[in-house]
Description:
four-stranded antiparallel β-sheet; six-stranded mixed β-sheet; 18 helices
Amino acid sequence: MERVSLLKLLRFLKPFAAPIAAVLVLAFFQSLSELYLPTLMADIVDKGIMSGDTDYILRIGGQMLLVALGGTLVAILGAYLSSRIASGFGRSLRGQVFRQVQGFSLQEFDRIGTATLITRTTNDITQVQMVVMMVLRIMISAPMMMIGGIIMAVSKDPKLSLVIVVLIPILVAVIAAVAAKGVPLFEAMQKRIDRLNLVVREGLTGIRVIRAFNRSDYEERRFVGANRDLTETAIKVNKLMAVMMPTMMLLLNFTTIAIIWFGGIRIDRAEMQVGDLMAFIQYVMQIMFSLIMVSMMFIMVPRASASAVRINEVLEVNSSIQDPAQPKSAANLRGQVEFRDVTFSYPGAERPALEGISFTSGPGEVTAIIGGTGAGKTTLVNLIPRFFDVESGAVLVDGVDVREMTQAGLRAKIGYVPQKALLFSGSIADNIRYGNGEASDTEVAHAAQIAQAAEFVDEVEGGYGAEIAQGGTNLSGGQKQRLTIARALVRRPAIYIFDDNFSALDFRTDARLRAALKPETSRATTFIVAQRVSTVMEADRIIVLDGGRMAGMGTHREQPVRAA
């Protein structure tokens, strides 16, 4: 299963077919140069040193230097190409994972989790990228070296080559044992990293709450626990690798002793020359080191395989929100929204979050949605931009079911202000222009003016060019809400959705903002989720939700509204 997952990711190497072929050729010539050097050394000993032929020694020595230089250049070029290929592979894979995650619905985000998605996009892809580089640099050249070394060793002395026959099964058994123990450890290690990321992320994003409730010690204990679990697993992995390398070197040294012992006997019987024995030892060393390099791959491949499974889990997720094969275009209406007997349930929920919701809201109308906590207010407005799909019934925009429209086409009609004011790192102007990338400076300033944000923007050093910290931490809650409202206004959409965005504003600013919004949204369909009666009193339609059902609908005068 894991090996299959790793092989699936190799499809991202298709654009690098030509460089990979070049790496193969370079690895072949590198192996040839390294295999030829022991033979030249044997000739120097047997034909040059034994006969005292200095000219021969110098001539063959010069050839050795040229072969070694050529092999070095080929190795450097091969390493460079391997690094470029692996880096490009990692870039392509990260891009694909990011694009896949961008297409997830909110259900997929809730199911998989943000912390693990970050780990899979960074650490897991890095593990696979490292293996790809090692495969190109080691797994290609190592088999060539091993096969070539065996052929050359047998050509020097077939009988002495029986030592290799005894050695290879022992090495293979050691590698298999280490791989069998390593796979579950590497899987556990990635899960421990997920857990640590989750704890760190919660500790950083929730620092205000943690300090307000004096829970720093508790959070520190959570971190220490997650960190300890990861450390203990990492120590087990390192112990496994620490045992493996000395075992390999011990086998290597015992093999060298055996070769010298039996080789000395054969030299004494005049069945072998000294130079051939030296070359034989070098070839056996090359075989051994090739197997050691392969063993290192067997250490890295299980971890990369575990990472590959996690990456493929993301790539193979089919988002519950998909564009239709043949999308429909909206009628000439502009912004009309209709809920037609809508029922919606969250996955695994015991009862529907919304049930039997029906109403129509047209251009120029303001629909207010109120109700107690958990009544389904945010869920209702989230169905309009199709963040979720209804369980039964239909949500129509301009006479077309939102499931029959493209997501991009639908959301281009909507100016959405989420319940939680979210800003991005960058300037104030950049954040407002996020709603419309082509907005001019005048349009940005106008949107800020309507949203009552201009009054504090003008006081900030740098004005609209002032930088906003990550998450907008250098702004107050009310300032962030006003900027998110400006971001929606600059879009000039057909439908506005304000999801409880006036809660952090004082009554004066709230009143001024609503007064400024009236002419700006007079031709659009507006939805307002609110808690304050003053915010919804002038709405054309007030929908009261209770337990996911419509408890009432009308105007403020027709049906007095009490704050939930």
